[in-house]
Amino acid sequence: MMELLGSTHTATYTRPGMKSTNFLPAISTMASSYKNPHFVMSQSMYLPWRPSSYFRTASAVPSIGVTSRISPDLIQAKVSRFPSNRTALFARYTPVDWLKSNHKNYMESESLRHSAERLRVDTARLIQDKEQLTRKTQSTTSKNIGERLNDIVFWKSELNHEIENMIGETNALAEVKKRLERALAETEGPLQVARECLYHREKRMSVDLVHDKVEKDLIQEVESIKGCQERMRCSLDAANSQLASNRAAQHELDRDINDKLIAHRIDDKCHYLRNTSDGISYFHGVENIDATVSMPESWAKFTDNNILRSQNERAASAKLRHDIETLLNTTSNEMWSHFNSVNVAFTNRLSEVADAKNKLQMHLAKTLQEIFQTEMLIEALKKAIRDKESPLKVAHTRLDERTRRPNVELCRDSTQLRLVSEVREIDDTIQRLRERLWEAEKTLQMLVNTKVTLEHDLSIKANSLFIDQEKCMSMRKSFPSTPRLVGYT
């Protein structure tokens, strides 16, 4: 139901200067006639125009609308609908509203057109940027694959070079090993001669049975030859182990270079793939599968470690070869040196023993002098420790007396801090002096032990007077030549 609500101040059908006028009857959907076709326009017709609000209010509760001020006969009238009259008298919008609505539509249209234009421009730019990005990314990927190929070629050349060096080193080590085996067999003759000399010297009686330089040299000769044999055996074992290590390192290099060949073939194929190449296809999800087992750093480090391992093994092999060469020369010279040393010792024993005795006496005198000075040092340290007791007592007493200051006078002033520092300084000094005292006493004990040893050695050297060289020297007239001792024959 729609009922009369009022009119606007600007409506063309209102006459503000007139007190009464004819007005159209109320429109009702339920009536077909007028009861009072003429009525005086109510004062409510001059209210501000709010057709929607008033219409809803009047429809729901007619008693609170502006029609409540109109004649009851007009409200109760039942007339037929006149749409044209209703539209003319009760329009919902004003021209301003119409202009605002048009302006709003213009603005929304312009805004949407601007948004669409920006979208087109941004989309075109996006397509162009992404195309350039795709080309740049593909170019970068191709460049990376090319760099990868260069890396593989570089490491292949390094591996090939290292393999060649390793093969040469292994062959050289095998040759030196054969020489070492021949030299080891030649050491049995000199060892037998030295043992025979020691056996004959055991026949001396009484005071001649001394541990003199000749006997020491003979024992040293035997030990030296045994040591040479042991070093040769150790070097032989090391050569066998190094040969195995060389072969193992070479095997790793061979396996690595085989892997590099396969990777080079695959990456070379990938490097020459283009957008127009045959055989390209989609492999959905392949980018999510991480089947890699290394990073570029670890990949390079793996080969570098293999080469480094081979270089280390090769360096160790070269060092071992050098050590074996040095060992062969050293053992030959050492055995010759001991052989000549023993022969000279047999001739010069008396003079050497006397010289050794004089040296021992000299060292004994120096040791006794050092013992005396060390004892004086110990006494000085003990006196220094005793001298520090009185200053420590004074500092302790001062600190104890200052603890009796009353109340706030118990101040942690500079004097208090200095007294604490003084006590700690004296304690530290005493501790260091005690440590030095302990070291001095330990040194004195070691000097006393050395003195006892020297005196005992002097007593041994004093009994070294005679030696029989007839039987021994007659046996020491032949010795293997140097080429045989170094394994060449």
- Proportion of strand residues: under 5%
Order of helices and strands: HHHHHHHHHHHH
Oligomer: single chain
Coarse structural class: mainly alpha
Helix content: over 70%
Largest sheet: none
Query: Which value, in Å, is the CA radius of gyration?
Result: 60 Å
Q: How many alpha or pi helices?
A: 12
Q: Give the overall average pLDDT.
A: 77
Distance N to C terminus? 138 Å
List unreliable stretches of 5+ residues. 1-80
Query: What's the shape?
Result: flat
Number of E-state strands: 0
Features:
mainly alpha, 489 residues, 72% helix
Would you spell out the secondary-structure blueprint of this structure?
Elements: H1 51-60, H2 72-75, H3 83-89, H4 95-186, H5 188-201, H6 213-271, H7 296-347, H8 349-387, H9 389-402, H10 414-462, H11 470-475, H12 482-485
Briefly say what this structure is:
The protein is an all-alpha fold and 489 residues long. The protein has helices spanning 51-60, 72-75, 83-89, 95-186, 188-201, 213-271, 296-347, 349-387, 389-402, 414-462, 470-475, 482-485.
Explain what the structure shows.
By secondary structure, the chain is mostly helical. Helix content is 72%, strand content 0%. The chain is built from twelve helices and no strands. α4 packs parallel to α7 (296-347) and α9 (389-402) runs antiparallel to α10 (414-462). The longest helix has 92 residues, at 95-186. The radius of gyration is 60 Å and the shape is flat. Residues 1-80 have low confidence and may be disordered.
